[in-house]
Specification:
The complex is a heterodimer. By secondary structure, chain A is an alpha/beta fold. Chain A contains eight helices and ten strands. In chain A, the strands form two sheets. Chain A has a six-stranded mixed sheet with strand order 6-7-8-3-9-10, sandwiched between helices. A four-stranded antiparallel sheet of chain A has the order 2-1-4-5, covered by helices on one side. In chain A, α3 packs across α4, α3 runs parallel beside α5 and α5 runs parallel beside α6. In chain B, α1 packs across α12, α10 runs parallel beside α13 and α12 runs antiparallel to α13. Chain B starts with a helix and ends with a helix. In chain B, a hairpin with a 2-residue loop joins β6 and β7. Classes of the chains: A alpha/beta, B alpha+beta. The structure holds adenosine-5'-triphosphate and magnesium ion. Magnesium ion (MG) binds next to α1 of chain A.
Chain lengths: 239, 408
């Protein structure tokens, strides 16, 4: 069964009066378990809008969205919050960490909202931070961390609830090439461990890490094809 | 359990928020501080007035009837009653002989005179002339010494029993018993001192009074053309109404009032006062609390205002929290807790300021800040926090996650 199934998703924004922006005009897409998908396309083509809908941050104007076989388009606010909390791990371009909280608390936060007991919470947060290589930075506040480290904290926060899917909207957009590559290596590792990953990017060499590339243009899917130029290492391990 | 975790998280967040904006938080809570101080002091003062009144009223005794020319309260036409005849002191003995329900009857006349001992003096002391029966006819207790006896009373001896304030004024250090003081210039030997009754400025109580035998009073200060009060102690408090009817009958007979004509005297009792005072006290309390409540209201508006600012400032944070699974309720609770915490801090500071001030009030009125006021203040400040925090918190809870995340 597909983790994500989108059928004819339309998203319009009312700009007041009769004016409307058609951000997505009928997108259909199915993503299976342990897939690694890159979404590309020019600026304004609707990538973020699509990600927000997949991530249950936003609801489509029309169309059907099934998440793990459950119809999300008709969910209420509380149910959406629960899906965001338990099933989806979001990684943003601008990290979006709470500035006044240390790394540990940032990572614990989804577990707090998920009602996990405090001892288990702490243990899982520490494990996950360790996993992303920040075991020695748990009590640092975001402004005491480098960009790459911040993004690792964000990845740890996305991972800690063991979600069905990880969504990353230009996760390397604010990082230099080297740190970007480090984050991509982390994603690759997560993928090998069985995680399903969707990431938005502008850069072709970042997209190369994925196994499938979806190209958007003007709110529509232009192409949807597997990555041909696969790295030898990745191909070897994947098969 | 889940709610508890959310509350804890909310408290943690608000603690951080307050710490991050110390100055702003202090200024914001100022309104609540002032509100709580005024509400606390107002209710302390009201409590004080009530207590003072209760004590003053208690000085009249619940089982004592006062036969007098005029009623204490009531809406009888003054023009009709102003020409009532004076009562006579010798009614007391006659009533005592005829009444079944009464225990003791004492006539009391009074005037205001200077009472002094050398340089120590009380300018406007109440000097009361009465008989030895007063001790039984009024609900008073001696702190020291004794009241005058039947012999001293009928012999018109220059002796007196004094109220607690008089004793304190004239004898700051010495024991007053056996000393000679001057009452309106005449020498009187102090036999005893009454226990302090307290109450509203000592007006109705024995505290500022000097009691002397009726005959001495008449010879020194003149007995004619003075208002006489006849105090009747009723034996059984259950029979106050019967006693009143009986006294009415006896008095009418003594004064030869024809049947069908109105009585030209009044029978007063403590109950009349408390009944009259209750609604007045309620009105004062309501107005006072309403006015001070306004200051709390203004404080609440300040909290609401700053919470709106806080919500706007933290739009991004709200977006982040929503993106990782915070529900609307969670966000609502977070900001409610923050507003309540701000108000609670204000309330506690307010109480800490109000407490020493209430000790000053205590100098004027017999009161202490009751423990209930502490609880009520805390509850009120929490309530103000929740009420004024609700709209901002609701706005935060309803924010669209995508919009909030995009906010810079
Ligand atoms: N809240 C909004 N109100 C109105 N129009 C919007 C809103 N959000 C997005 N849009 C419009 O929808 C279209 C798609 O926006 P989206 O953010 O999805 O683009 P994108 O592909 O992520 O672009 P970029 O690569 O620059 O991030 C754009 O034309 C944008 O102007
Ligand atoms: Mg975008």
């Amino acid at each position: 069964m597909n983790v994500i199934e989108l059928r004819d998703i339309v998203k319009t924004y009312d700009m007041g009066g009769a004016e409307q922006v058609l951000a997505l005009r009928g997108v259909s897409l199915a993503i299976g378990k342990n897939e690694y998908v890159a979404i590309m396309g020019p600026s304004g083509s609707g990538k973020s809008t699509l990600m927000n809908i997949i991530g249950c941050l936003d609801t489509p104007t029309s169309g059907l969205y099934q998440f793990n076989g459950v119809n999300v388009s008709e969910m209420g606010d509380n149910d959406l919050a629960r899906v965001r909390n338990k099933e989806i791990g979001f990684v943003f371009q601008t990290f979006n960490l709470l500035p006044r909280s240390d790394a540990l608390h940032n990572v614990e936060l989804p577990l707090i909202y998920g009602g996990v007991s405090s001892s288990e919470r702490r243990q899982r947060a520490l494990e996950t931070l360790d996993h992303v290589g920040l075991g020695d930075r748990v009590h640092h506040k975001p402004n005491e961390l480098s960009g790459g480290q911040r993004q690792r904290v964000a990845v740890a926060r996305a991972l800690v609830t063991r979600p069905s899917i990880i969504l990353a909207d230009e996760p390397t957009g604010n990082l230099d090439t080297k740190t970007g590559e480090e984050i991509m290596a982390l994603f690759e590792e997560l993928h090998h461990q069985g995680n399903t990953i969707i990431l938005v990017t502008h850069e072709a060499d970042i997209a190369e890490h994925a196994h499938r590339v979806v190209r958007l243009r003007d709110g529509k899917i232009e192409t949807d094809e597997p990555v041909q130029k696969r790295r030898v290492k990745t191909a070897a391990t994947a098969s | 359990m889940y709610l508890l975790t959310e509350l804890k998280e909310g408290l943690l967040i608000s603690f951080r928020a307050v710490r991050a904006n110390k100055m702003r938080s202090v200024l914001t809570t100022l309104g609540i501080v002032i509100g709580i101080v005024s509400v606390t002091l107002m209710s302390t003062a009201i409590e004080g007035v009530n207590r003072a009144f209760a004590r003053s009223a208690a000085a009249f005794g619940t089982d004592v009837l006062y036969i007098q020319r005029f009623p204490w309260v009531g809406n009888e036409d003054w023009a009709l009653i102003r020409n009532r005849r004076m009562l006579e002191t010798n009614f007391a003995a006659k009533i005592e002989r005829q009444s079944q329900f009464s225990d003791a009857v004492a006539p009391v006349v009074g005037t205001r005179r200077r009472v002094n001992l050398g340089d120590l003096s009380m300018e406007d002391a109440f000097v009361s002339g009465t008989t030895y029966q007063y001790m039984n006819a009024a609900g008073v207790t001696l702190a020291d010494g004794r009241f005058f006896t039947a012999e001293e009373s009928s012999g018109g001896r220059p002796v007196c029993t004094i109220g607690a304030n008089v004793a304190e004024t004239l004898f700051p250090r010495e024991d007053p018993i056996g000393k000679v003081i001057r009452v309106g210039g005449y020498p009187y030997t102090v036999l005893g001192v009454f226990e302090k009754q307290g109450g509203l400025f000592g007006v109705f109580t024995s505290d500022n009074r000097v009691f002397i035998p009726l005959l001495s009073f008449e010879s020194h200060f003149g007995g004619r053309r003075r208002d006489v009060t006849i105090q009747v102690r009723v034996a059984d408090i259950q029979q106050m109404e019967d006693a009143k009817l009986e006294l009415e009958g006896i008095m009418r007979k003594l004064r030869h009032i024809a049947p069908g004509k109105k009585s030209d005297f009044s029978i007063n009792q403590q109950e009349l006062l408390t009944e009259t005072f209750a609604p007045i006290s309620l009105t004062i309390a309501s107005i006072g609390l309403f006015i001070t409540g306004l200051s709390l209201f203004v404080g609440g508006i300040g909290i609401m205002n700053i919470m709106f600012v806080s919500v706007t400032e933290r739009t991004k944070e709200i977006g982040i929290r929503k993106a990782i699974g915070a529900r609307q309720r969670t966000i609502l609770l977070q900001f409610l807790v923050e507003a309540a915490a701000l108000c609670l801090i204000g309330g506690i500071i307010g109480l800490m300021i109000a407490f020493p001030l209430s000790l000053i009030v205590d100098q004027v009125l017999p009161t202490a800040m009751p423990l209930s006021v502490v609880f009520i203040s805390i509850t009120i400040s929490l309530l103000v926090g929740v009420v004024s925090g609700f709209l901002p918190a609701y706005r935060a809870a309803k924010m669209d996650p995508v919009e909030a995340l995009r906010y810079e």
